Amino acid sequence: MMVERKIKVVTEQHNINKPAVNEGFPMKEWTVEIYVLDQDGKEKPAKCFTKVVFHLHPSFDNPVQTFTEPPFKCTNEGWGEFEMTIDMFTTEKGGKSSIQHDLNFAAPQYENIHTIQFKNPSQALQQLLRETGPLPSDEERKLKKVDGGSKKKKSFDVEKMADGLVKLSEDDLLQVIQMIHDHKDDNTYIQNNLDAGEFSVDLYTLPDPLMKMLWDFLVKSSVVS
Prior knowledge:
By secondary structure, the protein is an alpha+beta fold. The chain is built from 5 helices and 11 strands, in the order E-E-E-E-E-E-E-E-E-H-H-H-H-E-E-H. Helix 3 (158-165) crosses helix 5 and helix 4 runs antiparallel to helix 5 (208-220).
C-alpha cells in the first residue's frame, strides 16, 4: 500500500540588530517548520515523523540539527541564502523521506509544498496518517462493510476477531500467521517486520474464505463466541 501526504515547509525571516558579517548583507533570524496538510489543505502537526534532521550550510557551527517534536522548528541566525536538505524519519525501517529546501530572504514568510510517499506503513503509522485523511485501504474497508450489510449476514464478526486475536497464545498466533500466509490473496495487506518481531494485518483486506477459517479457529480456541 502506498500513502501520499502533502508536507508544508513554512519559512519566516527578519532582520536582527547585530553587526553585519559581510557589508551589504544584514543579519537575519530565520525559522523553518514542518507541517502535514489534511485533505482540506489545513495545517496539522506532522506526528507521522519521529524526527526531522536539517542539513545546513557547512559554514554553520552546528550544520546538522535534529528535532523530535512537531513542528520541528529550526531557528538560526545568518546573513546568507542557501539550499538545505531536510530528512524526515518515521518509525519504519528505512522510513526516511528527504526534500530540498531553498532558504531565501525574498519575503518575510513563504511556504513550499512537497508530496511525500509512505510505502506499506505499519498499523501504528497508518493510525497517525488517518488523522490527516483516509488511506487507500479505507475505501475497500468501507465497501466491505456495506457489502456485509447488503447481503446475507456473514458468519464472522471482524471487530470480535480483532479482539480475539490478541487473546491467543503465542503458538496459536503462529498458526494464524501461517494460515494468513497460505490463504491470502493479492488484495491482502500484511506487514512482517522480522527484525522487530512484528506482524500486522488489515483484517478488512482478507478474502472471505480466509476470514471464515480464522473465525472458526478463534471459536475453537474459545476466544470468541
